[in-house]
């Protein structure tokens, strides 16, 4: 255990020792009290035994005097009864007095009993006769064993021999009640603290001076009850002890305070340990966050509600070139703001302070300390403290200068790639277009030659030349339309997304691709929904997608019988979009190819570059649409793409 742990554990160890010592003290105090109570119990038992012995000895002495009077014939049997009655009134422990002569005949009894009752059955057990023999032979008082009296109480007899002038003349029998002895000879104040019982040799309770149950083992004391003897014993148990309320309250308060102190020490120790762990975790977390902030390439900037900078990370300092000491505390205008775009920057600043910053971020132009400009993408979010209060704004700044350059370069390359793809498409269609242009040009030449011959011959009239010249003009217009479509398709231009009539785009594409389709024996079936709304798209780019998909469909039906070569082009309005579907009846696309169908440089053609479908998907996704593949229900393949509606049509949808 380290020094800090020892210091923390010392108060708890001290309190534990205090509690242990207090427990030992209380145990010793309780032990001494028990010893004192046991000593007091033994003394009181001896006192009760001596008191009962004294009472029995006193009764025995009185009965001996009465027996001597009966032996001297100072009292006749009839005169003895009043004496018996007086004796019973003065000594409540004796229930009955009996006088038997030497022949065991009942001479007198109080309360009265029948004269013909023998000694052994005169309200007593048979062992009374044995006591009679002992009293006659020994000439001394004899106690009988305990037995049950007619009233249900337990008792015993005292036989006093009566001697006349001629010797043994009978016995005087006193019937004692054990319950009466305890009731009248054990003082009331003694039973407030103790319970007194008389038990026989078998442990049967013969009498008790309290009906409170005997206390637990160890709180009683037993002493032989002699006389009368015969296995009788006095059992005295403590059933009421004086409670020292003040001491108990004091002990309870001490224990409560000790427990409270232990709990407080334990709580303080736990709190200290938690605080130490929290401090260690805080230091580790601070070190981790500092390392993470130092390694970030994204600039972090915190500002209060008034727009003053409260925190910048090293990445932001490296980005703008100013140290944190110069930036923290600075307010608008910031040193990294571009002077020529100060108004735009202030508007963005006030929008952020008002909580109107775009969730997807916004772009601003900043300058470095050396004057170099750079483009920054900024995300602003509310800065909330631990109490849930809004204390400012947290900004994430990303230098996107190189990204924008790369995006611009990629865009230019994509446009050049699209231009190249269109030129390749036109190159592949060149022979067909040349044949298509040859027809109107040949017709123009024929009509012009005919008109010149008639004019040179001098027999041509205006009425005859007008129809020929009109046909010549129509063929010239036809050739011009073909050349214009080709020119529009292949010329280099910037994308122009605007409302476009998709049905006209489809018509131009069919016109451009029609000669090539007829060359391959493919019928083009166009199904365009009437009153079709305009799409928001670039006309030439959509033409490129349509021509590429139509050309792929035509090539896929190279092995299809000519009568089954059919290309279906369907345009419908669905879910606020214009859905275009180009389906063929060709060989279809194998399942293992479908997942890589739109990947760059993947192609199933022997001489293909693998860029056609990838460019088509890029064009459609640039228009915020989708391009996907569907297997044909009767074979073949279908490519479907969607385009968004323009303006009011999109809002209505």
UniProtKB/TrEMBL annotation:
Its EC number is 2.7.13.3. InterPro entries: HATPase_C_sf (IPR036890), HATPase_dom (IPR003594), His_kinase_dom (IPR005467), HisK_dim/P_dom (IPR003661), HisK_dim/P_sf (IPR036097), PAC (IPR001610), PAS (IPR000014), PAS-assoc_C (IPR000700). Residues 432-647 form the Histidine kinase domain. It comes from the Bacteria. The chain crosses the membrane at residues 12-29, 249-268. Residues 360-412 form the PAC domain. Residues 284-356 form the PAS domain. Keywords: ATP-binding, Kinase, Membrane, Nucleotide-binding, Phosphoprotein, Transferase, Transmembrane, Transmembrane helix, Two-component regulatory system. This is histidine kinase. The keyword Membrane applies. It catalyses: ATP + protein L-histidine = ADP + protein N-phospho-L-histidine. NCBIfam families: sensory_box. It holds the Pfam family HATPase_c. The lineage of its organism: Bacteria, Pseudomonadati, Pseudomonadota, Alphaproteobacteria, Rhodospirillales.
């Amino acid at each position: 255990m380290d020094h800090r742990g020892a210091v923390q554990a010392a108060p708890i160890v001290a309190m534990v020792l205090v509690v242990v010592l207090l427990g030992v003290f209380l145990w010793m105090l309780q032990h001494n009290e028990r010893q004192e109570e046991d000593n007091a119990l033994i003394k009181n038992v001896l006192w009760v035994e001596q008191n009962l012995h004294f009472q029995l000895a006193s009764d025995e002495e009185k009965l001996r005097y009465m027996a001597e009077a009966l032996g001297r014939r100072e009292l006749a049997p009839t005169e003895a009864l009043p004496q018996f009655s007086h004796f019973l009134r003065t000594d409540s422990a004796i229930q009955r007095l009996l006088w038997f002569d030497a022949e065991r005949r009942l001479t007198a009894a109080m309360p009265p009993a029948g004269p013909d009752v023998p000694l052994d059955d005169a309200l007593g057990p048979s062992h009374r006769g044995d006591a009679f023999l002992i009293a006659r032979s020994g000439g001394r008082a004899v106690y009988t064993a305990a037995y049950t009296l007619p009233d249900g109480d337990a008792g015993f007899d005292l036989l006093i021999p009566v001697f006349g002038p001629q010797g043994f003349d009978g016995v005087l029998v006193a019937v004692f009640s054990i319950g009466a002895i305890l009731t009248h000879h054990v003082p009331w104040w003694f039973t407030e603290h103790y319970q007194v019982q008389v038990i026989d040799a078998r442990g049967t309770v013969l009498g008790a001076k309290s009906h409170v149950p005997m206390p637990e083992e160890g709180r009683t004391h037993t002493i032989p009850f002699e006389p009368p003897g015969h296995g009788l014993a006095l059992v005295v148990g403590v059933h009421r002890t004086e409670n020292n309320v003040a001491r108990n309250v004091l002990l309870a308060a001490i224990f409560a305070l000790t427990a409270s102190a232990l709990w407080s020490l334990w709580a303080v120790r736990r709190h200290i340990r938690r605080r130490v762990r929290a401090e260690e975790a805080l230091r580790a977390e601070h070190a981790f966050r500092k390392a993470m902030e130092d390694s970030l390439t994204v600039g972090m900037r915190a500002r209060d509600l008034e727009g003053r900078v409260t925190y910048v990370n090293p990445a932001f300092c490296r980005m703008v070139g100013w140290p944190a000491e110069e930036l923290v505390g600075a307010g608008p205008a910031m040193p990294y703001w571009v002077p020529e775009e100060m108004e735009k920057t202030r508007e963005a600043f006030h929008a952020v302070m008002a909580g109107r910053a775009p969730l997807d971020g916004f772009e601003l132009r900043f300058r470095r300390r050396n004057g170099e400009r750079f483009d920054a993408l900024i995300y602003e979010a509310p800065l909330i403290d631990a109490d849930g209060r809004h204390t400012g704004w947290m900004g994430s700044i990303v230098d996107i200068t190189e990204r924008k350059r790369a995006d611009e370069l990629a865009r230019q390359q994509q446009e050049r790639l699209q231009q190249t793809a269109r030129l390749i498409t036109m190159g592949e269609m060149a022979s067909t277009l040349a044949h298509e242009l040859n027809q109107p040009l040949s017709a123009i030449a024929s009509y012009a030659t005919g008109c010149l011959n008639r004019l040179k011959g001098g027999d041509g009239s205006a009425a005859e030349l007008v129809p020929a010249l009109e046909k010549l003009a129509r063929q010239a217009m036809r050739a011009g339309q073909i050349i214009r479509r080709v020119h529009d398709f292949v010329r280099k231009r910037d994308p122009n997304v605007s409302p476009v009539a998709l049905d006209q785009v489809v018509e131009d594409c069919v016109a451009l691709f029609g000669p090539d389709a007829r060359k391959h024996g493919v019928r083009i079936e166009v199904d365009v929904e009437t009153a079709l709304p305009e799409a928001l798209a670039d006309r030439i780019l959509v033409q490129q997608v349509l021509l590429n998909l139509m050309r792929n469909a035509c090539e896929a039906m190279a092995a299809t019988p000519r009568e089954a070569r059919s290309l279906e082009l369907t345009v419908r309005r669905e879910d606020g979009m214009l859905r275009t579907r180009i389906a063929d009846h060709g060989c279809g696309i194998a399942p293992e190819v479908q997942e890589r169908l739109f990947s760059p440089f993947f192609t199933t053609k022997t001489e293909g570059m693998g860029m056609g479908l990838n460019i088509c998907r890029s064009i459609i996704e640039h228009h915020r649409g989708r391009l996907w593949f569907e297997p044909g229900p009767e074979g073949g393949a279908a490519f479907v793409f969607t385009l968004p509606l323009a303006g009011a049509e999109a809002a209505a949808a």
